[in-house]
Amino acid sequence: MNIVYINHYAGSLHHGMEYRPFYLAREWVRAGHTVCIVAASHSHVRSVQPKFAERTQREIIDGVQYLWHFTPRYQGNGVGRVLNIAAFCIQLMWDAKQLARNFRPDVVVASSTYPMDIWPAHRIARLASAKLVHEVHDLWPLSPMELNGMSARHPFIAVCQAAENFACRRADVVVSMLPKVHDHLAAHGLDLGKLHIVPNGVQTEEWDQAGEALAPELAQHIRQARGDGRLVVVYAGAHGLANALDSLLDAAALLAKEGFSFVLVGDGAERDRLSRRVASERLTQVRMFEPIPKRQISSLLAAADVAYIGLQRVPLFRFGIAPNKLMDYMMGGCVVLSAIEAGNDPVQEAGCGLSVSPESPVAIADGLRALAKMDVEARHAMGRRGREYVRRHHTWPTLAKRFVEALA
Predict the structure, then answer these.
(1) What is the CATH architecture of 2-197?
(2) Do residues 333 and 247 touch, judged by C-beta distance below 8 A?
(3) Pairing mode, if any, of strands 34-40 and 2-6?
(4) Over the stretch 208-236, which tens digit does the pLDDT of each residue have?
(5) Contacts of 116 by beta carbon, 8 Å cutoff, 6+ apart
(6) Strand boundaries in 168-267, DSSP class E
(7) Are the beta carbons of 168 and 190 closer than 8 angstroms?
(8) Rounded CA gap, 18 and 37, in Å?
(9) What is the tens place of the pLDDT at every residue in 61-111?
(10) For residues 214-253, b (16+ Cβ closer than 10 Å) or e, as one string?
(11) Quick one: pLDDT band at residue 204, thresholds 50, 70, 90?
(12) 48: left (phi > 0), else alpha (psi -120 to 50), else beta?
């Protein structure tokens, strides 16, 4: 089967996030399919951008064909990003006939988070007599409306809504990472018989190998904290508004005289402000470190006693969550404290930790106290349950197979 996978933000192990298209495509190639990932040259989530001078460039990574389209650089979520999106979709529409003729896809997947790629994907699929798949990452336009307060009358929101409606009516298959989207998509015209849930996953090969050693300063800090008898609480991921890290710092302040050490690793729009807050409030039990390579994540989690994840309390999460960070925590065998209110609760489903109210410093502090009182072996047993759950339900070979089965 020939699969064209359109994802504006697609990355690879070399380029960085977004990893899902690469991992799925690599498994499909291993299963004997041919895959072409179509992506934009600039993405705000990639750590390394592809470099080329032409309008398009082809590249092969681990057997997966990449077709990069040149798009303008941007920062933030303003006009620059909108122009970047428009440039990508217009080029795809322009190149649809050539892509359909040269690659001859059996399946075309529109998977760019925003839904406007469904229009060029539909044209490619129609020209190639291929199946059209709409993949749901986040629900647009609901995400920018509920998270960023954009008006339903905003022209960008109107375009997103038209694209979502088109996708629900015209796609042959809809694949969602979010498990509770049925009512929403049905309200926009989807026949629910076309809907399949394929969540995010982990690459077990990377976890089965020995992790790369942590940077000396980070490793020394954790060793010192453990040597002082402190429970090491790690947060590894984006430092953005949605991650509600102020609540974690508030909980750290409540636990200032108790035996906890908080280690925050990552970057994001809120990092500088949070760092200033740690300094001004003299939260000496909190240390913030720069992002670390993906190869070091397993080493970081192996050194942690508890892994923390939190999100703002917003209505959008009623459709469920599928955070990559949580999959990493569970695969790392870490007991998890989750401060998230959503339509699903993977931590409770796996039995790998505790779930508490989001944006509640008291609830977070009480959850950490409860975990600290547990026997070490009981925490390790929770961590093992998380790893076993991920291996059963969230490995990329399993998910890639489920995706292909949905096409049938």
Answers:
(1) 3-Layer(aba) Sandwich (3.40)
(2) no
(3) parallel
(4) 777 789 999 999 999 999 999 999 999 99
(5) 85, 89, 159, 160, 163
(6) 173-176, 195-197, 231-236, 260-265
(7) yes
(8) 12
(9) 999 999 999 999 998 888 999 999 999 999 999 999 999 999 999 999 999
(10) bbeebeebbeebeeeebbbbbbbbbbeeebbbbbbbbbbb
(11) confident
(12) beta
The total of other beta-carbon atoms located within 10 Å of residue 75's CB is 8
Pairwise CA distance, residues 405 & 126, whole Å: 21
CA distance 223 to 120: 53
pLDDT in tens, 141-173: 999 998 888 999 999 999 999 999 999 999 999
- Helix/strand number for the chain, H first, E second: 16, 14
What order of strands is seen across the sheet that includes strand 34-40? 56-61, 64-69, 34-40, 2-6, 107-110, 131-136, 173-176, 195-197
Both tokens of 400, joined, read 């890639």
Q: Where are the domains of the chain?
A: 2-197, 205-393
Say whether 205-393 and 2-197 share the same fold. Answer: yes
CA atoms lying within 13 Å on the CB side of residue 378: 8
Q: 205-393 has which CATH code?
A: 3.40.50.2000
The whole-number pLDDT of residue 405 equals 96
Longest dimension (CA), the chain: 67
User: How many degrees, rounded to 5, is the angle at CA 83 between CA 78 and CA 85?
Assistant: 100
